[in-house]
Design brief:
Number of strands: 0
Number of domains: 2
Structural class: mainly alpha
Helix content: 55-70%
Largest sheet: none
Distance between the termini: 63 Å
Strand content: under 5%
């Protein structure tokens, strides 16, 4: 199964490169670049290239070989948000009022347990 997936991904990448090459060929060797026909051909070729590159990129992402920029930062934010909105006892101030959500998230980030009122 692994060989078939690699072969299909290779064929998809080759097809995408073929569409990109055809778009470049059209842009370079047909003189009126800004004619409706040339713009249409270039747009269709680039759209097909994106379609053919989408599946191999998703495969690389699932395998962990494609680094996603800012992914760790987004995961950290999601974890912080889930901690802040976790269902637990509400944080209370000295007068017994509930603390705002941003204060609750700051306390969760510090890892300090809120003091218990007796």
């Amino acid at each position: 199964m692994n060989k078939e997936v690699k072969l299909l991904n290779l064929l998809s990448v080759l097809a995408a490169l073929g569409f990109i090459a055809f778009a470049l060929f059209t842009a370079l060797f047909y003189p009126p670049l800004i004619s409706i026909d040339n713009l249409f051909i270039i747009t269709v070729c680039m759209t097909m290239a994106v379609v053919f590159l989408f599946i191999p990129l998703l495969y690389l992402k699932d395998e962990g070989r494609l680094p996603i920029p800012f992914a760790k930062r987004l995961q950290k934010r999601a974890a912080t948000a889930s901690l802040a909105t976790a269902s637990g006892p509400p944080l209370l101030d000295a007068k017994g009022r509930a603390m705002p959500a941003d204060v609750k998230s700051m306390v969760a980030n510090m890892g300090v347990k809120p003091p218990k009122d007796s």
